[in-house]
């Protein structure tokens, strides 16, 4: 029997129909709430966030605060990491509305730092969370094509580090929606077929993952719990216990989806362009949640975004630029450059060549991707191979700015 005032029944039925239709279309509400006309008014109110007196619709409750409480109950993390994880999980419900979607990388320095616990807790709040400890290339694109789950890959260090480069490539491909596709021969006739790799992913690893994966991730650095730090034991039925919370997330996202998708945000100048891409969906969610969430998101972004150590060729470019600045010269022979590089006690150049010092040939090899090649320059009455500053100006501006 309806518990709503008589004048509010029609309004409740309309709200129920509108929200269930929207959520069914986006697959944002658990299956038990779809296509079920037997749900009571009280059940619908639970999903929608309640019905105000007199039939006025109350907005769905914001889920982020409760998500933070759940994570803190079971995991030892900083406030910045908890906030980032909550915002990432909310954004993952509408991954199709973003151009780029980062991974969440849970990195621990050694075992017993709570990787699996953190995965279990976060997966219980995710949209169609799928937790696994190993996978093949075929599983990756077929599971995405079938149901686009939120994929939680534990023990990633055991099969992604120095592992199958094709699998790493498939996981990397899921970073950008337009490129999250793979072609495979399928069926008895081996016809070419396109599969999608576009889905949210969380990867847990002891030690860093390959650089390309780290670059596409928001990194959460796990730590072992201290003796006086208290967390509750994860209940065996956490997935079931958090079903109402998943419904709250789904309802809030469904009600605010257009606002989130169209939200224009000003990203802090932290890290590189890819770091901005990684964090943008979180800022869009935070902007709709409003203060203090937008400020909390910015603090988390600044705290968790780490400028990665440049690769060897970038370091070479940087040190050559410094050589020209210090010497005031407009050109240098390859030999001069190598001598200057090797004299830097803090640089890698004494041992970068498989344990031996850098050579003119290696300098040329590392600069070649920038379109820079050694040229003949005259030094006194001699002609030697080397570089002019003008050759490198474009690379300096593009890669060292």
Describe the protein in words.
The chain folds into three domains: 6-53, no CATH class; 64-304, P-loop containing nucleotide triphosphate hydrolases (Rossmann fold), CATH 3.40.50; 312-399, Arc Repressor Mutant, subunit A (Orthogonal Bundle), CATH 1.10.10. 33% of the residues are buried. It starts with 8 loop residues before the first helix and ends with a helix. The longest helix is centred in the middle third of the chain and has 19 residues, at 243-261. Helix 11 packs antiparallel against helix 12. The protein is of the alpha/beta class and 401 residues long. The protein is built from 16 helices and ten strands. A five-stranded parallel sheet has the order 2-3-6-1-7.
Compact description:
The protein has helices at 9-26, 41-48, 64-74, 79-92, 115-123, 137-147, 165-173, 211-215, 238-241, 243-261, 273-289, 293-304, 312-327, 334-342, 360-367, 389-399, and strands spanning 103-108, 129-132, 150-153, 181-186, 191-196, 201-206, 217-221, 331-333, 375-379, 382-388. It is of the alpha/beta class.
* Beta-strand content bin: 5-15%
Instruction: Please bin the fraction of helical residues.
Output: 40-55%
The tally of domains stands at 3
| H/I helix tally | 16
Instruction: For the record, give the distance between the C-alpha atoms at the N and C termini, rounded to a whole number.
Output: 68 Å
Report low-confidence residues grouped into runs of 5 or more. Answer: 1-16, 19-53
Major sheet summary line: 5 strands, parallel
Shape: elongated
- Supply the CATH class of the largest domain: Alpha Beta
